[in-house]
Amino acid sequence: MRRLLALLALAAGPVLVLGVLFVLPVTGMVSEGFFVDGSFAPGAVLEVLARPRVHRVAWFTVWSSGAATLLAVVLGLPAAYVLHRLALPGRAAVRAALLVPFVLPTVVVGVAFRQLLGEGGPLGFLDLDGTPVAIICGLVFFNLAVVIRTVGVAWESLDPRPGQAAAALGASPSQVLRTVTLPALRPAIVGAATIVFLFCATAFGIVLTLGGVRYSTVETEIYLLTTTVFDLQAAAALSVLQIVVVVALLALAARLRATPDPTAHRTVTPVRAVRRGDAPAVVATLVVLVAMLLPILTLVLGSLTVGDGWGLANYRALTTTGDNQALLVPVTAALVTSLRTAVDATWMALLVGVSVALIVTRRSHSVAERRVRSTLDGFFMLPLGVSAVTLGFGFLITLDQPPLDLRDSPLLVPMAQALVALPLVVRTLAPVLGGIDDRQRQAAASLGASPLRTLVTVDLPVVWKPMLAASGFAFAASLGEFGATSFLARDDSPTLPVVIFRLIGHPGEMNYGMALAASVVLAAATTLVMLAVERLRVPGVGALA
């Protein structure tokens, strides 16, 4: 009982933070949909869900996410094989290059594809700008790394002996792949596809930038209903629908992760030399690499284009407010705001995330204690079940009255971004802390070490690199966060993603050039942070993808 009370006391702080910054906004948002003029009216939600436009939005969300997921799996499987099973020259560099799109802010991805597919772009002749194809290509570009990383790690750990036995019995390479390898990889493939579908269905910046108001998903429709139509009840009803679907997908992903995996508990299989039969997979990987680099290269070149020549005028213009006063503050001021906000969001997410990881990974000494830890673990992962747009909407309608009137607080945006980054921090630290042998802590305690000294001498030496990695994830996530920030950022202190979106919404060659230059700056900042995290080689960090 004493241990249980101590556990509850330790969890009180993080539970209070999550209660105020997550449960309260989400509850307020749900209430907005189910209560009309103070009366419980569930029929209002059904009325919204019966609208023809809502049906079109829901159908577009489902089929575009499904198409993007299918393409990501088809293109990602050969790349996963080549980059994780073959000794290809420059393999590490190619893997890093294919990881970059996943860490780019979604609004930057949208701008890059507009530059690539728009009039005057390298692929402008295809006339795909503003079409569903452009949106699907952007979603595949952003999520391909998830398939490559997840399936590739499983492929590395795959026992080669069943395939070798099948080959010895006369099976061709294609038969071995079809009858042995793919069935063994099925849990990893299905798990990756589930996560990709979730990311696509809740994509915001890419769809809003490439589809505008013509092609909306549930995520962007919530934003448009709130900021343009001012129909909060309809937005709340769609948010409820989205929460139900996202939670179901997360439960499915968790169940798939719990399925016994034939690749578990195996050492990494050494890579082998490239053979003639690997040529199709190698060529497909190189084509994917070129396709992934093309939007980024187009974005960089576009930012350096000035009239009919080249120059840095677009970058110098970042110190201005754009053509016809498109902005209230210069882009450089927005960059400073983004960096300051990211620092605040990082320490907030790290402070709560470390506490949560310590709470849920400590050894339980009773059934009741184990159940409490399991319940707390599920509770702290709840932000994964709500999109950033829904969270920002909840902040907007609930944290605006005393005693929680935070609308004018400079910490409002960092708090929202910290909540978005919290699951990344916990999922980075929890596996590492859970892998520490509890007998080391017991030995330190038996020698007279206090709990704090035990934490410093046993846990800290193991967890400091994962903490740096978690800080990098939180910082990069904050720099590129657009969903919640688009609701909460004030006009006089916007973040860089918000400024980029405003610039592309204002006509003028100067404004568009500034948007390209600002996108390059933001992409470079997030990429540098994530490449630094990648160099830490933290075990289990790859699972985040």
Automatic annotation (TrEMBL):
The chain crosses the membrane at residues 57-80, 92-113, 133-155, 188-212, 232-253, 281-306, 326-359, 379-399, 411-433, 512-533. InterPro entries: MetI-like, MetI-like_sf. Its main location: membrane. Residues 58-251, 335-533 form the ABC transmembrane type-1 domain. Belongs to the binding-protein-dependent transport system permease family. It comes from Nocardioides alpinus. GO terms for biological process: transmembrane transport. PANTHER family: INNER MEMBRANE ABC TRANSPORTER PERMEASE PROTEIN YDCV (PTHR43357:SF4). GO terms for cellular component: plasma membrane. This is Iron ABC transporter permease. It is a multi-pass membrane protein. SUPFAM superfamilies: MetI-like. Keywords: Cell inner membrane, Cell membrane, Membrane, Transmembrane, Transmembrane helix, Transport. It is found in: Cell inner membrane; Cell membrane. Pfam families: BPD_transp_1.
